[in-house]
What does this fold into?
Amino acid sequence: MLTTHNLGFPRIGKKRELKFALEKYWRKELSQPELHATATALCEQNWQIQQQLDLQTVGDFSFYDQVLDTSFLLGNIPSRFKSEHLDNTLDQYFQVARGRSKDRHCCAAHAGEMTKWFDTNYHYIVPEFDEQTTFSLNPEHLLEQVTQAQQQGVQAKPVIIGPVTYLWLGKSKDASNRLDLLDDLLIVYAELFDCLQEKGIEWIQIDEPILVMELAQDWQHALRKAYFQLQSTKLKLLLTTYFGELQDNLKLACELPVNGLHIDAINARNEVNKLIDWLPQHKILSLGVVNGRNIWKTDLLQTLEWLEPIYQRLQQRLWLAPSCSLLHVPVDLTSEQQLDSEIQSWLAFATQKIEEINLLATALVQGKQTIQRQIDENTSAIKSRQQSSRVHNASIHSRLDEITPEMAERQNPYKHRTTIQNVKLGLPLFPTTTIGSFPQTQKIRHARREYRNDRLAKHDYEQAMHKEIQYCITQQETIGLDVFVHGEPERNDMVEYFGEQLDGYVFTRFGWVQSYGSRCVKPPIIYGDISRKQPMTIEWITYAQSLTPKPVKGMLTGPVTMLNWSFVRDDQPRATTCLQLALAIRDEVMELEQAGIGIIQIDEAALREGLPLRKSQWKHYLDWAVHAFKLTANGVSDETQIHTHMCYSEFNDIIEAIANMDADVITIETSRSDMELLDIFDEFKYPNEIGPGVYDIHSPNIPDQQHMVELMKKAAQRIPVKQLWVNPDCGLKTRQWNEVKPALLNMVAASAELQEIYAAQQQQARILEKVN
It folds into this structure.
């Protein structure tokens, strides 16, 4: 007998029910009881899908983010959101996630900082700590889910983030040591365990994914201290790791006084035998044998051949699960009625991955013959993919062989280029621009949907998009921006739009994955070798440029982001796939330049999230990732200005690699961090131009002029004024025009004020220089 379980299930629903309910609630079109009813229905649907598992995860549902849930569970709420006038915990929760506007009771408050969850495209709200931080247990939300599950007959296994990982995920706001809070935090965890025991819970899943990181001794000590202190609980603790190998933490993980250990056997398969040898015989070993982060079918026969001797040795001590939470994959492949049937046969989404776990368990316990039909079908699909001519294209690999080092270098260094670009563009100090997209209205989405469904003729669709582009250009002229964008009305998603026009990609209709809160993305699937079929953006950008004398940026998504925000083929190195993407996008860059576009932005929003979790492996990744970007961008002349954009990720520790990208201008997210992300520039003299974001577009708040001026003054303390741009944090597609216009008017006014301030300072400096 062995036990099957899951680490977490997608919370958004097959048809993004949570997204739509949240957005209605925020617009005050849905009551709180109605929102809770949606949540209840989604939880019950998820448990129904997982009913064949021996243990089902409870607590994986969240209205916005599981880390923010943990902060509220532990009573760690930023002081700026504590108010005697607010007795609605859910609304307070959303204020931390999205920010708060000023009203007659409360002042405005910026949202909690958001960053990437390890090396995924999921974003979490960063916990905030200081010397005065205290913790208090607020278990109601989790206990309600436990009660609901038990009423449904679910064998519940609650999941929580472990205390040490929680501290590691957060930030100290006053330079105090986060680990100094561990003792107080463990008291609250012990109280939580008592509450869960009283509810009749036997097992609890406690996630400590930092065990796959390179940990300093104080963090390793914190893990020992935490679990030796918590071992008095009567609950059985399943310590869960994922996303990588344990390596130097393997011995530590085996020694911690818990009842079971889960490892990611997709990424750490070579550690399994050592774990079996080292793990005490009274402990459970849970193996994550189905990939929780990609969408390819598991090779059942190969996996069973590997698992059978392990099961013979461990018997009931062996548990099976996906490698990590299934939060990172779409819900159900059966929703796809229009997907290419051959490619669909190669795939498995969350629901199908649960089925794979059950099939593997059945075969191990009852024999492979009991699932022979499923094994035969699975083997046929695996071979079909391996042998398909749709996957492999010899001409693309020949082009890779023709890449030379010179193709990835600009003609001259930045100092030479910037002089030429300044003459050509004639921009002021603190030039203003946006990141790319403008609001995607219902009208725009309707037109795209009608065209996609063949209910709108191509000519009529193009006319509709031209009208939207013209509106965007007119608005930018009215606002007074310096560098324009066309607004991207024709684009559904910054990756999907390009992938649809490249060979080697396929797309789903319902393959949605949560990025944060109500924001969902539909990652395309890279199944084969990649090439560009035809120009992808030329017509739209050149039309926009024909409407204005102001420069209009060509807007592209970079190869590393295309790679990291897709479900990637696993039959060749990621670096090879990235080079294929680089060559395809390079062709578009060159055609944009030939069409007269003088500024081209190549977004690499996802550069950092592709970093391996262990720093010792970073250089290899950054070498090929930066090379791919440079191969994409650097075929242009010196007078063409290359921009790139990075959003919502810590980049201080890869700043040298970012500088090596040699983009003329980089725009980054900094507003939520109050420009803390610029601290690195105290030490590192960034050589090129930079636009630190001053408008948090993920919050409904409209920043005022003075706030933006103060943020840019902080930036000017670290970066020479002549290198600074003024821009939002990210694209504006998720906002409304009635929010965007006043925010951008304030931004332009902030730029004008800054120009006055620093022009006066420069004049004063010149006078003093003459006097002296």
Remarks:
- Residues 737-771 form the longest helix (35 residues).
